[in-house]
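Figure 2 data, in text form.
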Amino acid sequence: MADQENRAGLLSGGQVSRREILKKGLIGAAGLTVLPAVIAACSSSSTATSTPAAPVATPAGATPPPAATPAAATGKVTLGSNLSDATPKAALAAAVAAFNVANPGITVTTNTIDHNTFQTTLNTYLGATPEDVITWFSGYRMRAFADQGLFVDISDLWAGATGKLYTDAVKTACTSYDGKQYMIPFDTYAWTVYYVPSLWKAKGYTVPTTLADFKTLAAKMKNDGIVPIGLGQKDGWPAMGTFDIIDLRENGYQFHVDLMAGKNKWTDPKVANVFNVWKDLLPYYQTGAAGRNWQDAVNGLLAKTTGMMLQPQAVQVAIELEKTKPGTLADLDFFSWPGHGKGFDDEAALDAPIDGFMLAKNSPNLAADTASAKTLLAFFGLGATQGIYAKADSSLIAVASDADTSGYTALQKKQVAVIGAAKKLTQFLDRDSNPAFTGPNGMGSFLIDFLSKPDQDLTPFLAKIQAFQDSLGS
């Protein structure tokens, strides 16, 4: 996914996804010179008040979050948000309003910055005069800034009540290279294989539990005249999820994250094995993926002309289609990518991109009111607060273990179970790597090259990828 691969809706006129932004180049690339003042000027919406915003009613069915601090607490907090589209913006406003009710002495001023502007200028923004608390991504994206000293260590929150609400896998995603935590997680979702149950029931298909079962099922679908595995790779990022999951099943979590960080080499025979395993599956993939966007591929899934698809954004398309075709969302389900029997299946590892909140070290207000900013972070870390947000966007789920899931959709509840069972979580290839590596001339184009010419010699192909990564100094 911000995007987590589409934070709140790349649907009919929805927001630009973070993947779209990657195509334009992100932080880490040279030449970021836009000043914070320019960021503010480009903001799609800016809310600056000297008093707390008027309380917004807690959505029906959501448990009002308890006060994070005594009512006597006072102070001021500035919040820089990239949630500029209508749905996420309203959801965050509801969460902030709940904080205002619980902590009336603390004023929160939110500056909502256009999503694309926020992404492409964050490096300069954080180095100048940012807000106290900002929205951002976990994994490499968080670690890169923490390593530069641009985020504040909040390990004290994790050592207290906050830490008790999260699994070790989530904590790892919020931990930087120095072993300290810099992020409060807020929302997530799982990269799993989606399908339409009514089609499967009619055809007698069953959920595969091994790679061999997966291939057998795909062959049966193809024989039935159905496209077994959908894929739209026009935007460059969707196939990254397939590389991630095959690498995790074949080589394990540690090898994968080290490969993403540049510690392992793309020329390693283990990487060649990933592409060879993938090559064996390609006869069952939708042809012409390089010229198809992911939305069109999902439409095929929902129309029952495609059997299955590793594309969690299918939920967002189904939510939109539900407005004109009731029952679409109820006829959608998913399963975790099957095991490969290579000794890593017990990790149950998968991509589960996590978005959250950090403290910006260079905020001019932070030194005077760190306590208030941390109070807001602790409040965002509560499951009840995250539940308010997840209710507004049912394609996402809360990360905290104490979140009330009773109002979740069936798909949200299943995501909770799948992510909770994972011993290791990764953040998706373009979040776990240098952004320049996954840009328009990077991994997205390399994957299109592989999909277009799967029989090519992998030795020069992987050497080309390694040379590109070396050129970035990562």
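Caption note: The domain at 193-351 is CATH 3.40.190.10 (D-Maltodextrin-Binding Protein; domain 2).
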